[in-house]
Batch of 4 targets.
Target 1
Amino acid sequence: MTNPRNPDSVAFAVLEAIRLIGAETCSKVIGRGAQTIRDYSDETRPGNITLEHAMALDQACHEKAGVRPFLRLACLRAGLEPPAGEIPAHRFRYEIVPHRSRFVVVDNRSDDPAPVFQTMRAAEDWVAAQRERAA
């Protein structure tokens, strides 16, 4: 039986990628086993997909099906309308970029130094705090 997944979760985006291009293709794209991909699609299992792997899966899904599940997730979390097609990068104020096994949050509207985080979750929490502060 399939566990229900929240549409604004990483597990849901991974499951969508599996549905679009298949677990075997997903595993080839990121260089991990098919079981690891299935584990990423289950919130109750340990482990988390990296941003680099999510971006690679987005590209593969876009090439095959014209859909970017992780971009859609980012839009949902940012309170934006999920894209029907491509979204210009300038619409996003904050961009989380992998750099040397860390995550840098780039503010597209500022020249201030970018904060660096050890995990994707910490970077997402910082972005959410900035949005709350601005609201």
Target 2
Amino acid sequence: MILAYDSIDDCLRFEILSSDGKILYKKNIASDPVHKIPRFDLLLQLTTFLEENKLLPNNIEKIIFVCGSGRFTAVRTACIVANAFAQNTNARLIPITKEQLTQAKEDFAEFCQQTPLAANTLAEPLFASEPRIHGKN
């Protein structure tokens, strides 16, 4: 099975796909429309999604996820969760960009046959811009 997720925008989207790209389970979680702050914790929501569908993490063979470009915190979190999940389950990573997903008309199935990163290779985030860190003078 393949886990796919996009957490870069103000909506969190999960899908479980078969190896041929058929959607088996899916879930969308909207953000707070007033403040544009996502109302979700990626790791908690991922765990809940797997539990709701009675899936074990070790059943996931590949993880397709959006690694950028986007906001600093969203992109880093997406990569950290994918890397940690892969390291603990031996799943292989297929990082994609938001632009690639948009070109594929938001269809994760387009990437199911893509060659994943080598085992034990960490995915790197793609930031829309360099983070601005402000300190006190």
Target 3
Amino acid sequence: MPIFNRRKKGTAFWQEPPFRSADLQQLHEYAIGCVVREDGVGMMRSGWAIYRRAGLHSCQSSEFLRDGYLYWSQSPAFQPDVALAFLTDLFERLNACDPVPPPDVYAVPPALIEPMAAHYTMRCWAGVELVETADRLSRPDIGERFEPSVFLAIARTPSPFVPARARGWARTYARRRGHPDPWPAFGA
């Protein structure tokens, strides 16, 4: 075993911080450098470290995760099975809880809503990306396993936090399955 191998056996690359530091500012600065270099893996590792320490709303962690995934998915280093594992991990962690929104999300100061908005929008993104990636990779087993839970996660998300892509996916899924539109008041 190499002396300098920092990765713990069985740890996914995105769960390994890019360096040993709990300083959010250092992680953020490193991630910005990764954006400049178009280093998707570095962005994902930084974004995950920030997310696990301070939440998806902190220091652009959700953007680093999402954009880092995009850069990585278009790179020669992309590994489809690892992508499915990342999306599954992220979706399942975010799907494990539903932050309780106030009755009127627009009447609450942004600082109180941002953590909730980041949680829900990232969960919607991860779920839709997971089932669409599984479809592109011809992995119907993944789609069949996750489509119902992705649909339910999106449908129970407060409507102000559902991105357009997730709303469209959920409506299409509902029509194909004969379910009612989750947001009939918003029109088609």
Target 4
Amino acid sequence: MRPVRETSAQLQQSVWLSMRRKDIKQAIKSCNLLNKTYPEFAPGWFAASHLAQLLKQPELALKTIDRALTLEPVNREWRLHRVACLVMCGEIQSARESLTGLMADHNDAFENDATQLSQLAFLCNRLDMHAQAENLYLQLTVREPGNGGHWFNLATLQRFQGRLQEAESSLEKAISLNPADFDAY
């Protein structure tokens, strides 16, 4: 009897599950099998990029996310991930250009996904695009007013800019929403 070959989706699930369980050896094994068996399955390359990022191999993370984007070039989540990979590789100018292009291409679409909007805000902040980051954090506080993390991130940005009274107000809001967040104190 021939062994049953796992589908691309099953192998992909195995990669993500192994990463969540911190079973890196199994994640690598499943990921290698996935991308060898299904080289045209773009989500496999996306998973490989996350795995490389986890292993602190930024160049490999960038190479594999580029492979995924070659197969599916308009995926917003993957393009955001690519910007993070560029930052990890120290390619700051390329990261800024990619992020600016991504925001121009998908500006309205991010408003429907708080997770991606939060990642976008973080990357803007990381790339010294502070006005854009602040605007995004403000959008997030309106969209999810009960999320103390958004208020904390806004306060951090305001403090960095020397706007201490605004930062203190945002921080008080963050603490009131999440009193167990000891980073906010």
